[in-house]
Amino acid sequence: MRGEGIYTSILKDEISGFLKIRENQGFKDKNRFILTSLDKYLVSQKITEKFLTAKIIDNWLASACSRQSTGSMNNYIGYYNSFAKYLHTFGINVFIPEYVRAHKSYVPYIFSEKEIANIFTVVDNIKLNKYVTSQVQFSMLLRMLYGCGLRLGEALNLKKSDVDIGNSVLFIRSAKGNRDRFVPLEPTLTNTLSQYYNYLLRDKPNDAWVFESDVADKTRNCIGKPRTVDWAQDSFRRVLGKAGIDLPELPRKQRNICLHCIRHTFIVRSFRKQDLAGIDNYDPAASISVYVGHSNLIGTQRYMHMTAENSIDIINATSEYSKGMFPEVRDEPSNMTKQQDILCLKPQTVIAQEDLKNECSKGMFPEVPH
């Protein structure tokens, strides 16, 4: 089948060779479907020369990404561009498109402390559905997202073998960017996860899913398979409603309050704890960036300005502390050297994994309700 690596276009040999090289380099290549899409498009358009013009590539992207988000389209572009550079080494001239600029109107929703407390009260005390296992799983999932800042897919893809209760560590496999990482756990989360482990996972094989379905769906048998994103998001919407958190009316296709906002809240709350402790937010930024799996500090630093915006106690403390302290300065450029130096660093080179584990025990991240 085409999806399994049999290509028929004019670039079939180059596609196979490119994927083989990446496989030998250790890439898992979950995005090889992008080249399958390109191969299929070239066949449909009867392209018979090894020369891809801007028109060909633009039309392929337009058809393949017609209903995709900007991020998904850039995923197509990035993977194709790697292939295009490979083709250039053989003297094959192909067009390399630029990335699409994302629309900057989206502002992550950050839950307040009161809203977080209400959410956990609801998930622990109100019956969401008739399945006890499902409710226990969602309660644990929510705590894991809030206590570790995981992406939803990272949590749902966890297997029993990825959970090390003794060392308070999760192993996240093939996360965004095909990167693996270790995620140390706060003691409060370790205690809850240990109870969950004994209740649902102890007698299961190591390859069992941490959040494994035990019921049959109306349309398909889900037993023994991981819980779905739809299951998690539907449960969360019910929790939000019972917690008194209304979803705002937004334009079609614009992201609303969802489980990913728990990850946003985790990062902001982590910075907030450092602020309240009198620690410069640029100091823990590298640790937080590695912990949540950002590819660099650019993805982390955008949360820094949200800390004060969502913490009135920080605003009041800062205002009182700085009252009348500084002279008025006009047209004085800010010294951005420190910020620029930090943002250029790769988190993998900033802090070792063992150091990260030590940092985690210093109260950097929010505690999870028992």
Overall shape: it is globular
Helix fraction bin: 40-55%
From N to C, what is the helix and strand string? HHHHHHHEEEHHHHHHHHHH
Calculate the terminal CA-CA distance, rounded to whole Å: 49 Å
Structural class: mainly alpha
Radius of gyration over C-alpha positions, nearest whole angstrom: 24 Å
What does this structure look like?
It contains 17 helices and 3 strands. It is mainly α and 370 residues long. Among the domains are: 2-88; 113-166 and 186-242, no CATH class. Strands 1-2-3 form a 3-stranded antiparallel β-sheet. Helix 6 (132-148) runs antiparallel to helix 8 and helix 6 (132-148) packs across helix 10. The longest helix is centred in the first third of the chain and has 19 residues, at 70-88.
Blueprint (SSEs and pairs):
Layout: H1 12-24, H2 33-44, H3 54-64, H4 70-88, H5 113-125, H6 132-148, H7 152-156, E1 163-164, E2 169-172, E3 181-184, H8 187-201, H9 229-242, H10 260-276, H11 285-292, H12 298-301, H13 304-309, H14 312-322, H15 337-343, H16 347-350, H17 353-360
Structure in a nutshell:
This protein is mostly helical. It has 17 helices and three strands.
Keywords:
370 residues; mainly alpha; 3 strands; 50% helix
